Amino acid sequence: MGGRTGGAGGFTGGVSGGRMPGRVRSWPAASRVRPSDLRAAAERDELARGVRNRSIFLAMVGTIVAVAAVTVLMGTVGLLRETRSRPLTNAERATYVKEDIARRWQAWPAGLVFPDELEYVGLTRTQQYARRVGIAPEVRCGAGVDRPVAGVLDEHDCRTLLRATYVDQSKTFVITVGVAVLPSEEERERAAEKLPVDDRVGVRPVAFPGTVSDLFGAAQRQRSAWVAAGPYIVFSTAGYADGRTRESVPTEEILHSELWPTAQSIAGRIARALGEPPSVPRCTQGNVC
Hints:
The chain is α+β, with helices and mostly antiparallel strands. Helices cover 44% and strands 17% of the residues.
């Protein structure tokens, strides 16, 4: 007994806490990983995430750039289509003609609106020439015509009145021509329908002192009339250079005189020039499409 007990005691004494002896376990991996290895692994993970994020960013930027490039390309193509030279449409040709005629009173010099010399045909069918005496300053429409006419022009927004005086080749007749500028051809048509049918009213004469027109005033007017062209109403009034009044000249003399045909011819020449259609280019950028 004693020997077994002693043997048992010896055995028991060899185990701490009285537990049964056994194999001691450990974490083999943890015991072998160094801190530097952990840092390197973390850096590799961080680098991998950066590469992935950069790839995603570059893909997004590439997509945006591609979309922008396509948009710019489409816009450029559209712009080129709009701005490239092409044949004018019928509507564009008509608009070109209207706009060119409508701006002539401003675009042309005064000497082109009222030429220095105008050709006309006399009663004997011979070519004759009327000469311009002078060009009056531009005035508002109501200030250069008689009251019944002024009311119509003002109602239809007449812009301005241009006037010049001519004398025939024999220096017997004096003719004042007035160009009333309306906003458009349509407005001119409406105004013309309301003008009084009276050859005693129209544009007021313009006399230039010291010239053959010196005696030409309202009382010397023998007849007045008008003709239309584009947005313009071209008025004319005529009388004798010697100062004879309307009342002093028999009606028969006026009917058989060259006075009125001369006045009509001069006013008609000015109106035709203002309303003559211009040469229209074939294309939007000239004559080359």
